[in-house]
Amino acid sequence: MRHTLPLAPQFYVTAPQPCPYLDGRMERKLFTSLHGDNAERLNDCLSKQGFRRSQNVLYRPSCADCAACLSARINVSTFTASRSQRRSRQRNARLTRTATSPWATEEQYDLFRDYLDSRHADGGMADMDVFEFAAMIEETPIRSRVMEYHHPEDGLVAVSLTDVLDDGLSMVYSFYDPTRTRESLGTYLILDHVDLAREAALPYVYLGYWVPGSSKMGYKANFAGLELFVDGKWQKMRDPADYQKETHPLSVDPIAEQVANITLPDVRAATRPIPSRDR
């Protein structure tokens, strides 16, 4: 008997668990697996609808009584660096960027551990070991790159796992030397990705989720040209104070309705029928 993967992706919902961004909230994710010949097309399509990739999974927040997490991206054509962001460029002018295939190294993991222990010691990734780290970096069915940033004296100081989409760059996960606070390395990584996207004529840099009321995500609102995925479409970000973290539970669409409103890529053109053979 021959088994084939379904052409249409199957969507599932995780069990509720404590929200990592807002105290006292519970989070739930809508997700689907990313596999097969159409993985890149699916990733491109769902990334435009607020989904994010984690290894072989695409996910989007789907909480029962909260819609605070908003997918964010920078419109490269309307981005201009602020004075503080220009200073970050200057302070990191000596760094060199190397783009490699998604392959994990011990040097990356050591930097990753320093970053987690300093910035996210109580987060969901705090206990990640070297094998789980390697899976995060290497298990990707799409076009991904590891961007390493080296200082001429101090070696590796920052890393970004980056997906190349058909309309931009998606910063899947970034980490850096937490002791180099003056350099604002997190800001610099985003600025460098804006430069990379502009050079490649890609219109967007996807940053993940911005969460009003979360200090961990507040920095994303500092970038000009920021767009948020709200009510099923991308909108230019207004004053951050306009976005409320409290959401009435009746304003959250049921899961079935959320899934029904997802646009899927047309895979018919990429799927060739198997010719029959006369016996």
Mean of residue pLDDT values: 89
Into which percent range does the helicity of residues fall? 10-25%
CATH topology, which one? Aminopeptidase
Q: Beta-strand percentage?
A: 25-35%
At CATH level 2, the architecture is: 3-Layer(aba) Sandwich
- Unreliable runs: 1-5, 271-279
The side-by-side strand order for the widest beta sheet comes to 8-9-10-11-12-7-13-14
Structural class: alpha+beta
Largest sheet: 8 strands, mixed
CATH superfamily: Gcn5-related N-acetyltransferase (GNAT)
Question: What is the CATH first-level class name?
Answer: Alpha Beta
How is this structure best described in words?
The structure is a single chain. This protein is of the alpha+beta class. It has six helices and 14 strands. Strand 2 and strand 3 form a beta hairpin. The longest helix is centred in the C-terminal third of the chain and has 15 residues. The N terminus and C terminus are likely disordered.
